[in-house]
Amino acid sequence: MGKDKEKKDKQFPLIVHKVARLFEPPKKFIEPFVKKGQVVADLGCGPGYYSLHFAKILGQKGKVFSVDSDERSIDALNKKAQKHGYKNIEAYTSSASDLPFIEDNSIDFIFANGLLCCIAPNQVEFAVNEIKRILKPNGRAYLSAAKGSLAYMTAEEWEKILNEFKVEKREDKRAEYTAEVSLK
Ligand SMILES: C[S@@+](CC[C@H](N)C(=O)[O-])C[C@H]1O[C@@H](n2cnc3c(N)ncnc32)[C@H](O)[C@@H]1O
Q1: What CATH number corresponds to the domain at position 165?
Q2: Residue ranges making up the domain that contains 92
Q3: What digits encode the pLDDT tens for the residues 105-139?
Q4: Total domain count for the chain?
Q5: Alpha carbon nearest to ligand 1 atom 12, residue
Q6: Which of 70, 92, 118, 147 to mutate to test ligand 1, by most ligand atoms within 8 A of the CB atom?
Q7: Residue 104 within a domain
Q8: Is residue 6 part of a domain?
Q9: 46 Cα to the center of ligand 1, angstroms
Q10: Separation between Cα atoms, residue 72 and residue 160, nearest integer Å
């Protein structure tokens, strides 16, 4: 516990985000989850690879809240959103453990891809509480967490997180845990 207190959010240089995305085609992940006009929260959005795809799918009547604790990522996302003319992205430099700018029960889909393994361990329960607070009663969330020594996530912690939700689908892959969840 004492050691956990010292652990900080894991953040990455932009080039690492770029390389990682080469292995994750966006269609595979996000198209099945969202519809035009919905509201999405992309938590731990990085420089916004997925946020931009969400913005395109959701259209002008929809909206993406993009949140990352790393200012460099949010700056990069804002530049790309401007360049592509997306006006439906609201980006915040903030921890996912504190989202005062998102109303209760207001989000159709939460995308937390690779977030919960990067949050400082003593902040994870607050992030989970925020996910539960902002999700609509009929909303869904996609959670994934990397495994291994570079990630904070343990099997026990992952189970603890999933216990907070109704689990619709889950996979225990070689390098990551993934789950689609809704409110209990
Ligand atoms: C593995 S990257 C995933 C990026 C993005 N979701 C994707 O799939 O391309 C994890 C991201 O979480 C961010 N992060 C770490 N701790 C955070 C926190 N407490 N709140 C919000 N973002 C955080 C990091 O800065 C990083 O951009």
Answers
A1: 3.40.50.150
A2: 35-182
A3: 999 999 999 999 999 999 999 999 999 999 999 99
A4: 1
A5: 44
A6: 118
A7: yes
A8: no
A9: 5
A10: 31
